[in-house]
C-alpha cells in the first residue's frame, strides 16, 4: 500500500516530464527536420546549421533521459538494486546536459564571430579558425563532456576498493572531482557564452547607432533590433536557468 502511494506521488512528476518531452521532441524534431530537408535540396551547410542540429539532437536526448530517470525512480523506489540503474541514467542525463551547455556556448561564440563587426587581428584569426572548424569543435565538446561524466565513475569504482583508512582521502578526491566537473562542464562554457553574448550585443548596438546617425532611410534596422532582443532574452533565460 505504501509503495502504491509512493508511486502515485511520482505520477504527477512523470506526467509533467512526459508533457515536456513531447513538446521538446516536437520543437527540436521540427528544427532538425527543416535542416535535413534543406541539406537534401542541396543548400549549403553553414556552421550555425551544424551546431543547431547537434544541439537539437542533444536536447531531445536530455528530455528522454530526464523522463526515464523519473520513471525509473518511481518504479525502483523501494528496490535495493536500483542504485546502478539510477547511476547509469543519471550519468547519461549529465552527459547530455554538459553537451547542451557546451554547444550553447559554441553557438554563441560562432554567432558573435560571424555577426560582429570587430576588425582586430585576434578577432579575425578566431573567426577563421573556429567558424571553419565547427564540426571539430562539436566533436571536441561531446568528447570533453563524456570524459567529464565518466571520470567520476572510475573514481567511484576505485573508492569501493579502498579500506576505511582511505575514507578521508576518498572524500577529498570526490570533492576535487565535483569542482572539476562544475568548472569544466558549466563554469568555463558559461564564461565563453557571457563574453561572446556581451560582445555581440555591444557590436550590434554600436552598428545600429552609427546607421541611425547616418540617417540612411534605405537601411532597415528592424532586423538588427530583432537580433539584439533575441540575444538579450537568451542571455537572461540562460542566466536564470544556470542559477536554478
Looking at this protein, list some descriptive labels.
single chain, 244 residues, mainly alpha, taste
Largest sheet: none
As a whole number of angstroms, the C-alpha radius of gyration is: 22 Å
Beta-strand fraction estimate? under 5%
Overall number of strands: 0
Low-pLDDT regions: 1-5, 157-167
How far apart the termini lie comes to: 35 Å
SS content category: mainly alpha
Q: What best-fitting shape do the alpha-carbon axes yield?
A: globular
What is the mean pLDDT? 76
Helical run tally: 7
Helical coverage, percent range: over 70%
- The ordered string of helix (H) and strand (E) elements is HHHHHHH
Structural domain count? 1
Main location: membrane
Subcellular location: Membrane
Protein name: Taste receptor type 2 member 40
Keywords: G-protein coupled receptor, Membrane, Receptor, Sensory transduction, Taste, Transducer, Transmembrane, Transmembrane helix
Question: How would you explain this protein's 3D organization?
Answer:
By secondary structure, the chain is mainly α. It has one domain. It is built from seven helices and no strands. The protein has helices at 2-40, 47-75, 82-115, 121-131, 134-159, 167-214, 222-243.
What's a concise summary of this model?
Pfam families: TAS2R (PF05296). With 244 residues, the protein is an all-alpha fold.
Helix and strand arrangement:
Layout: H1 2-40, H2 47-75, H3 82-115, H4 121-131, H5 134-159, H6 167-214, H7 222-243
Amino acid at each position: 500500500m505504501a509503495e502504491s502511494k509512493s508511486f502515485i506521488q511520482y505520477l504527477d512528476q512523470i506526467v509533467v516530464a512526459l508533457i515536456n518531452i513531447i513538446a521538446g521532441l516536437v520543437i527540436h524534431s521540427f528544427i532538425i527536420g527543416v535542416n535535413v530537408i534543406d541539406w537534401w535540396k542541396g543548400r549549403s551547410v553553414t556552421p550555425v546549421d551544424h551546431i543547431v542540429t547537434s544541439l537539437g539532437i542533444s536536447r531531445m536526448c536530455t528530455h528522454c533521459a530526464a523522463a526515464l530517470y523519473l520513471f525509473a525512480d518511481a518504479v525502483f523506489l523501494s528496490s535495493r538494486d536500483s542504485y546502478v540503474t539510477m547511476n547509469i541514467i543519471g550519468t547519461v542525463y549529465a552527459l547530455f546536459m554538459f553537451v547542451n551547455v557546451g554547444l550553447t556556448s559554441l553557438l554563441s561564440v560562432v554567432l558573435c564571430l560571424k555577426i560582429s563587426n570587430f576588425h582586430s587581428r585576434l578577432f579575425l584569426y578566431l573567426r577563421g579558425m573556429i567558424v571553419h572548424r565547427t564540426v571539430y569543435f562539436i566533436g571536441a565538446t561531446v568528447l570533453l563532456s563524456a570524459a567529464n561524466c565518466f571520470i567520476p565513475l572510475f573514481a567511484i569504482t576505485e573508492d569501493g576498493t579502498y579500506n576505511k583508512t582511505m575514507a578521508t582521502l576518498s572524500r577529498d578526491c570526490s570533492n576535487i572531482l565535483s569542482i572539476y566537473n562544475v568548472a569544466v562542464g558549466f563554469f568555463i562554457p558559461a564564461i565563453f557564452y557571457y563574453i561572446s553574448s556581451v560582445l555581440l550585443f555591444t557590436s550590434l548596438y554600436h552598428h545600429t547607432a552609427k546607421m541611425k546617425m547616418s540617417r540612411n532611410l534605405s537601411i532597415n534596422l528592424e532586423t538588427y533590433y530583432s537580433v539584439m532582443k533575441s540575444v538579450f532574452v537568451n542571455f537572461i533565460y540562460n542566466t536564470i536557468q544556470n542559477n536554478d
